[in-house]
């Protein structure tokens, strides 16, 4: 594998932002790994949930940029959980441990599905202030693998990796996307059999989102127009499920736009979080928000809204 072009930033990130490990379950083997960066005074941070192949550090470009602008962000890596209820219960315990009452969630692919399930799980006592759903889905049946979901735990790691790699772009891509894919392949190699098997089980276990339980949660749907693991039908289903959601469309970016189109993704994240500035749910240090910056973001917000209407 060639040298990953983002490695200087990545190496700097790894040397400056410590990886924390936290256990919140009775089972000591269930360890949450996370990067928590930015001002601790912020009580409603943005939390990133990775895809099947991802680790907490796949969001390093968002962490570097957003903390530089005054946001508190947390990027997670899941322990081994075998069903959605178990995951939601563990995630709730983690938020309790971190003393976070409500949070904003950015979920990529499986992370987006789990973010929706957690918002649904906590709807009677809401813990999710808003959702950014990147290349996400609302029904696991789109992968046509619900019948194999209960057998992933039996498969060796090389077979599980082959299943995941089958969803990676195989045609010609631009250099940034090629670097992003290389990076994700590298991250995939770092995952053990049980980590991969449990994530694929969560990804394919028969389940769907009940939108009426989270209809009051502000949502931004972020997706790409080029090749990704999501079908057009799956994207259309998300639009139907969240008719009032803001849409953040990227012309290109493939499965991992947060790596290869990080500037656009970071802008869309800022636009989404702008609506909470000046409230107790702001994810940014108030002293970092200048009037000029707010004006620039409002113009960006207005421009994106006009593009949606066209």
UniProtKB/TrEMBL annotation:
The keyword Secreted does not apply. Residues 87-163 form the AB hydrolase-1 domain. InterPro entries: AB_hydrolase_1, AB_hydrolase_fold, Maspardin. It holds the Pfam family Abhydrolase_1. One of its GO terms (cellular component) is cytosol. The keyword Ion transport does not apply. One of its GO terms (molecular function) is CD4 receptor binding. One of its GO terms (biological process) is cell surface receptor signaling pathway. Keywords: Cytoplasm. It is found in: Cytoplasm. Gene3D superfamilies: alpha/beta hydrolase (3.40.50.1820). It comes from the Eukaryota. Belongs to the AB hydrolase superfamily. This is Maspardin.
């Amino acid at each position: 594998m060639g040298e990953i072009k983002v490695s200087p930033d990545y190496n700097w990130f790894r040397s400056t932002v410590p990886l924390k490990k936290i256990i919140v379950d009775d089972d000591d083997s269930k360890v949450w790994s996370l990067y928590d960066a930015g001002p601790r005074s912020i009580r409603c941070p943005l939390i990133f949930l990775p895809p099947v192949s991802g680790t907490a550090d796949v969001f390093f470009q968002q962490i570097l940029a957003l903390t530089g602008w005054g946001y508190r962000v947390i990027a997670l890596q899941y322990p081994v959980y075998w069903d959605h209820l178990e995951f939601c219960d563990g995630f709730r315990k983690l938020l309790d441990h971190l003393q976070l009452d409500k949070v904003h969630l950015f979920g990529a692919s499986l992370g987006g599905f789990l973010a929706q399930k957690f918002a649904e799980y906590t709807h009677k006592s809401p813990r999710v202030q808003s959702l950014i759903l990147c290349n996400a889905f609302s029904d696991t049946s789109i992968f046509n693998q619900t019948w194999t979901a209960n057998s992933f735990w039996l498969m060796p790691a090389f077979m599980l990796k082959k299943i995941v790699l089958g969803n990676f772009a195989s045609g010609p891509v631009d250099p940034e996307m090629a670097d992003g894919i290389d990076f994700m392949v590298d991250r995939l190699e770092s995952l053990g059999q049980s980590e991969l098997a449990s994530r694929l089980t969560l990804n394919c276990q028969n389940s769907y989102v009940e939108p009426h339980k989270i209809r009051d949660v502000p949502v931004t749907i972020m997706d790409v127009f080029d090749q990704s693991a999501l079908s057009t039908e799956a994207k259309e289903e998300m639009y139907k499920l969240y008719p009032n959601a803001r849409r953040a469309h990227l012309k290109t970016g493939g499965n991992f736009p947060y790596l290869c189109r990080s500037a656009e993704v970071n802008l869309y994240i800022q636009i989404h979080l702008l609506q909470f500035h000046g409230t107790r749910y702001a994810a940014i240090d108030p002293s970092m928000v200048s009037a000029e910056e707010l004006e620039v973001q409002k113009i960006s917000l207005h421009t994106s809204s006009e593009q949606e209407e066209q």
